[in-house]
């Protein structure tokens, strides 16, 4: 029985399983669907390479670098083209490049003269004296002003969380930025101090962390992980109940209409929080139900292929983000074929567009044809698109990204409390330690060390 049960086959569960296998541990991974990877899914169709979910991975930690290296994927990494540093923001119907240098900042039309002057005063503003937890909107409005909230942070939040700046918690959604004010009294002062410390220590500069993908798409990562641990994975295994034993755990699951029971010494829950809340169990003084309150908004990703001549915009950037105040259908668009090679056939372009999220969840319930037309309406105006697309692929996520909203700390406390009461049970996933792929990989790697001592 000296084994570990992992419930959930997304990037967290796969990474944990792989690290356990490397450490010589005995384990089984249970995945309810017929494939692993969760939202990570690379689709090759009609000469286009579409990412249904995440599009890039960040070199954000040693754990990420080690995983990619150990899987033999270093030679398959591809970095974005030079244009990727440019990010467009829609303002008054025009796409304006986000400034990347002091010179560009001075000359940009994205922010008014008054907003620029206000930014220069940020180091001289004191810490917040409000004892209450602060939203992202309140924090940015207080430190940087309304314009930087509307045309800086708001579209940025839409691109990462598909969330609402008025509802997200600054402490939990952007802990690094939050800590700059906590430690240094200023975002700018903290960033300058961090750069100086990095130079003195000769550590990698996280501010210049590079992003990348793989020649076959991000799915190459989850595919490789699966092939390494395939014999330990049970697909289409729907876990319904957990039972705590005097020493260990029973996992009840169904597969092809038949009910099974497996026994493990420890279990790790990497399911989405709302699915954990649905699990029945007999654990004394433990209640998963509050985890159902963590909001996962619906999101639709619509990848459209066009003839290059049918798109008037230069597409010389990572993509274009759309602030809430612009009142558009799309949250933003990625210029996939400008970022990486072989994302579209020759003389064609691929644009991935996002709709829904906290901003407009109802739009995700419309028909595919209606959604495509709403996207095209924006693209014709924003990117000077003409004619119909020659390629369409739609991905729907009923529960997309967990929102670290105000009061999120109570869920973290609940999970820690459950772990202390239910010996041998652990939580891991993008609802616990950050939503990025890098966060998930790091958490899984640390947990593997904790479980095995290696």
Largest sheet: 7 strands, mixed
Percent of residues in beta strands: 15-25%
What integer is the average pLDDT? Answer: 94
Secondary structure tally: strands: 21
Helix content: 25-40%
Q: What value does the Rg take, in angstroms?
A: 23 Å
Global geometry: globular
Strand order of the largest sheet: 8-7-17-18-19-16-20
Word description of this protein:
- The protein is α/β, with parallel strands linked by helices.
- It has 15 helices and 21 strands.
- It has a 7-stranded mixed sheet with strand order 8-7-17-18-19-16-20.
- β3 and β4 form a beta hairpin.
- The longest helix is centred in the last third of the chain and has 16 residues.
- The protein starts with a strand and ends with a helix.
- About 1% of the residues have low confidence.
Task: List the SSEs and their pairings.
Blueprint: E1 4-7, H1 11-22, E2 27-30, E3 42-45, E4 48-51, E5 57-58, H2 62-70, E6 77-78, E7 87-91, E8 94-97, H3 102-107, H4 113-120, H5 136-143, H6 146-160, H7 170-173, H8 175-184, H9 187-201, E9 211-214, H10 219-229, E10 233-234, E11 238-245, E12 248-255, E13 258-264, E14 266-269, H11 273-278, E15 280-281, E16 299-307, E17 319-321, E18 330-335, H12 336-339, E19 348-356, H13 368-382, E20 391-397, H14 409-421, E21 425-427, H15 437-452
Parallel strand pairs: 1-2, 1-14, 2-10, 7-17, 11-15, 14-21
Antiparallel strand pairs: 3-4, 5-9, 6-9, 7-8, 11-12, 12-13, 16-19, 16-20, 17-18, 18-19
């Amino acid at each position: 029985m000296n084994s570990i049960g992992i419930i959930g086959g997304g990037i967290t569960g796969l990474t944990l399983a792989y690290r356990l296998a490397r450490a010589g541990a005995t384990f089984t991974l249970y995945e309810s669907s017929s494939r692993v990877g969760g939202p990570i899914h690379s689709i090759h169709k009609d000469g286009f390479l579409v990412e249904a979910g995440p599009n890039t991975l960040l070199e954000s930690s040693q754990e990420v670098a080690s995983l990619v290296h150990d899987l033999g994927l270093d030679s398959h990494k591809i970095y974005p083209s030079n244009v990727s540093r440019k990010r467009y923001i829609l303002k008054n119907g025009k796409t304006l490049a986000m400034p990347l240098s002091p010179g560009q900042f001075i000359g940009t039309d994205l922010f008014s003269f008054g907003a620029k002057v206000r930014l220069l005063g940020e180091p001289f503003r004191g810490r917040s004296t409000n004892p209450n937890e602060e939203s992202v909107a309140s924090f940015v409005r207080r430190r940087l002003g309304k314009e930087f909230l509307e045309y800086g942070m708001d579209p940025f939040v839409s691109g990462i969380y598909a969330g609402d700046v008025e509802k997200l918690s600054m402490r939990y959604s952007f802990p690094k930025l939050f800590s700059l004010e906590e430690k240094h009294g200023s975002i700018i002062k903290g960033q300058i101090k961090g750069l100086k410390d990095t130079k003195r220590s000769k550590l990698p500069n996280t501010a210049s962390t590079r992003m990348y993908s793989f020649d076959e798409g991000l799915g190459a990562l989850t595919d490789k992980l699966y092939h390494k641990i395939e014999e330990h994975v049970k697909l289409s295994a729907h876990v319904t109940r957990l039972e705590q034993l005097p020493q260990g755990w029973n996992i009840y699951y169904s597969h092809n209409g038949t009910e099974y029971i497996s026994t493990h010494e420890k279990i790790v829950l990497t399911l989405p929080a709302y699915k954990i809340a649905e699990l029945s169990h007999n654990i004394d003084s433990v209640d998963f139900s509050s985890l159902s309150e963590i909001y996962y908004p619906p999101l639709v990703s619509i990848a459209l292929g066009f003839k290059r001549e049918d798109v008037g915009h230069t597409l010389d950037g990572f993509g274009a983000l759309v602030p809430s105040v612009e009142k558009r259908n799309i949250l933003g668009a990625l210029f996939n074929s400008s970022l990486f090679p072989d994302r579209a056939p020759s003389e064609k372009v691929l644009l991935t567009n996002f709709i829904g999220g906290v901003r407009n969840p109802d739009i995700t319930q419309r028909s595919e044809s209606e959604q495509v037309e709403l996207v095209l309406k924006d693209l014709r105006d924003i990117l000077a698109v003409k004619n119909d697309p020659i390629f369409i692929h739609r991905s729907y996520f009923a529960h997309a990204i967990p929102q670290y909203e105000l009061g999120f700390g109570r869920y973290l406390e609940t999970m820690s409390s459950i772990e202390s009461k239910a010996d041998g049970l652990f939580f891991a996933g993008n609802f616990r330690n950050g939503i990025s792929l890098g966060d998930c990989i790091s958490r899984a790697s640390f947990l593997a060390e904790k479980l095995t001592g290696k």
